[in-house]
Amino acid sequence: MGAGSDRVALIPPDAATPSVSERVAGWLRDQAAAQTLRWRLWAPVAFGGGAAIYFALKTEPPLWPLVLFAALTSMIWLVARRLGARRALTLPLMLLACLALGFAVSKVRTDRVTAPIAPAMAEPTIVEGWVLDVDSPGDRGHRVVLAPVRIGGLAPEETPIRLRATVRGEPPRPGEAIRLFAILNPPPPPASPGAYDFGRNAFFLGMGGTAFGLGETRAVVLPEPPEGLKRTMAINAARFALAERIVARLGERTGGIAAAMVTGHETWIAREDLDAMRDSGLAHILSISGLHMAIVGGFVFFGVRLGVAAWPWLALRSNGKKIAAVAGLIAVWSYLVVSGAPPPAQRAAITASVAFVAILLDRPAITMHALAVAAMIVLLIQPEAIVTPGFQMSFAATAALVALAESWPPRPRDMEVPWPIAAVQNTRYWLVVAVVASLVAGLATGPFAIQHFNRAAVYGLVANLATSPIADFVMMPMLALGAALEPLGLGAPFLWVAGKGVDAMLAVGHWTAGLPGAVVTVASAPDFVLPIAFLGVLFVCLWRGRLRWLGLPFACAVVLWPRAETPTLWVGDAGTNAAWSEDGRAIVVRPGVRQFAADLWSRRRGLELTPRPAEGWACQRTACAPTDGAEPVALWWGKREPSAVQLDGLCRAAEVVSVRAVVNALPPSCENRLVLDGVDFARGGAVELWRSGDGWRTLWTADVRGDRPWSRIGNPDGEG
Fold first, then answer.
1. Which positions ≥6 away from 279 have C-beta within 8 Å?
2. What is the torsion angle, in degrees rounded to the nearest 10, for the CA atoms of residue 279, residue 284, residue 287 and residue 289?
3. CB neighbours of residue 562 within 10 Å
4. Among 158, 249, 214, which residue's Cα sits nearest to residue 499?
């Protein structure tokens, strides 16, 4: 138009300026509109929420109301969708239906896996069974997984399906039939109120108890095992033989780490190496999970795709990407079998399989929707995974990395530059990607590491950045090739290269673990805080738009939430050990006894575990009591009831008296003392105590754990 022509006003000059509330409402509508294809991502979150509610209950609910509620909510949601109801109605109905389904599926899963749990037997008994697998070693010896055939004193219908047995000497091999004279117990309860429930984990693994061997194992003749058991033992025997060959090739120290990463057997890992890996933030490399599945599956995928592309005849007649996806699937499930298929590896295999199937269906492999499908499949099969640290950390980290990939700006195409400059640019770019990815994954898993493990590896980012190229491009691919070729006697060169990678990783781990302040102990937040943090992390990852940052303070809830008052005193289950808090330390009465439980309690409360001083205490074979009255507890761990004189001395020495045996009568000196005896420990397990103005406030493990199918409390003598 010319200078003098009329102009067309797109916005009339007299148009009213939108108010602040109108602009905010419009922005919020835009934010909601951006989630059109994202709402379904919240279905597995709701399903997991239903499962979490089920596991948080203190009593076992009946099945039929849960199934009925799940069926009704699902039907109402489907009818509403069929009638074309607005999303504002169908979305809450979908989330409610998924919540109810998670609740019901968890109950069905519990009923399906329910099996006999070993009682706490007062006297040792004879256990005869098949060695199913060699388990990770414990503090008191080697451990194996048994399929019991006969247990003295138990009827066949009372015999657990599986036992974890601690044996003396060298562990028997998978497939052997053995007889063991042992103390039998149910799986261990939590070390303190609210701590991780090992008994619940064992329940869903089919592990009905522990056996602590009192003598050498002996061979025994047993009836022929079922075909399924025979097949499993054969697979585990081959796995153990492969682990032995790897150790023989590389030596016990290097080979032990390599064998753990291939077969899951941690038999040969030295305690100092394991501690260094934990303190440096590298322990996740030892556990077969998502990282290993991704590296093995990805290595095979790209290797096969490159091979197809290098063969013109095949490349012109087939879809190389889909052939590589099939090869990746085969590699992932083969690795799952070789690893012994622990639950974390199963979940990782499912996640990797969803990605490869997406490729076969011409869908993007790494998307938030694929991750949601994988999470839903895992929770449908193993709803108990929602309360395990491995699931929480794995999916939080993966969701964070996928969200990072979605928001990462596309890399501009490089101009034609000399190759040295291009190499520097590419190195810089991928270094930035590696640093940001490690940082994001670490931040996403941080709340769970703090809440469950109470330790933060200060130099974990440095250690992981230093070892990631070694693990991703050298160690894991060479281990995969070496393990595949070792049965043919051709794995030596590949295992040698992998061993050098293991040595480099151990060097980095020990160096970072030895730096000043390498590990910070952080007390756990109250139990309800972790779900808040989990939802905050998921909101940051799943929501699209700037509103996602509203989830950030919730994601940091575990770090920011005020801690509860530190207990004055802790007494372990059965009263075999105790510790009290003083100036940020947990002073343990019996150092080295039930050390694992004492360590778990002290870290959970953010305390440094310290042995009690030698002076100021009078200790005998079955008792320990302070002589100056300054400490709050006196301990009697003998199995027999103390005499009136002995009990009188304990009550005069401390405000709280813990007696392992059942006390039938109290002397007058115990009138103003809190006396805990065998009856209390048999009912409640471990206990925490807080000093109050009018006495002591107690919190027992059983009060937090509730009365659930897995909540039987045993005797610490039978610790496996």
1. 455, 457, 509, 512, 513, 518, 519
2. 170
3. 8
4. 249
- Max mean pLDDT among 63-77, 182-196, 337-351, 438-452 falls in 63-77
CB of 390 closer than 8 Å to CB of 347: yes
C-alpha atoms less than 13 angstroms from C-alpha of 455 in its C-beta half-sphere: 22
Extended strands (E) in 478-598: 519-521, 569-571, 578-582, 585-588
Other CB atoms within a 10 A radius of the CB of residue 621 amount to: 6
- Taking the C-alpha atoms of residue 498 and residue 485, their distance in angstroms, rounded to an integer, is 13
Tokens of 253: 């120290």
Residues 6+ apart with CB under 8 A from 649: 625
Band (1; pLDDT cuts 50, 70, 90):
very low
Handedness of CA 287, 291, 294, 297 (dihedral sign): negative
Cα gap 148→130, rounded to integer Å: 6
Residue/partner pairs of 510-513 with CB below 8 Å, 24 or more apart: 510/273, 510/276, 510/280, 511/280, 512/279, 512/280, 512/281, 512/457, 512/459, 512/460, 512/462, 512/463, 513/275, 513/276, 513/277, 513/278, 513/279, 513/280
pLDDT band at 702, cuts 50/70/90? very high
Query: How confident is the prediction for the chain on average, in pLDDT?
Result: 89
User: What is the Cα–Cα distance from 525 to 451, expressed in whole angstroms?
Assistant: 6
8 pLDDT more than 60: no
Answer whether 121's CB lies under 8 Å from 183's CB.
yes
Q: Where are the beta strands (DSSP E) in 195-245?
A: 207-213, 218-219
Helix (DSSP H) and strand (DSSP E) numbers for the chain:
25, 19
State the distance between the two ends of the chain, measured CA to CA, in whole angstroms: 90
Quick check: helix, strand or coil at residue 161? Answer: coil
pLDDT of residue 720: 42
Question: Which of 398, 399, 461, 402 has its CA nearest to residue 434?
Answer: 461
Read off the pLDDT of residues 261-296 as tens digits, 9 standing for 90 and up: 999 888 888 889 999 999 998 888 888 777 788 888
Can you say whether the dihedral through the CA atoms of 164, 167, 170, 174 is positive or negative?
A: negative
Measured in whole angstroms, the distance separating CA 660 from the mean position of its chain's CA atoms is 32
Q: What is the pLDDT of residues 97-135, one digit of tens each?
A: 999 999 999 999 999 999 999 988 878 999 999 999 998
Rounded to an integer, the average pLDDT of 693-697 is: 86
pTM for the model: 0.89
Closest CA to 151 of 177, 117, 125: 125
* HSE, side-chain direction, 13 A CA sphere, residue 296: 29
The answer, yes or no, to whether residue 26 has pLDDT greater than 90, is no
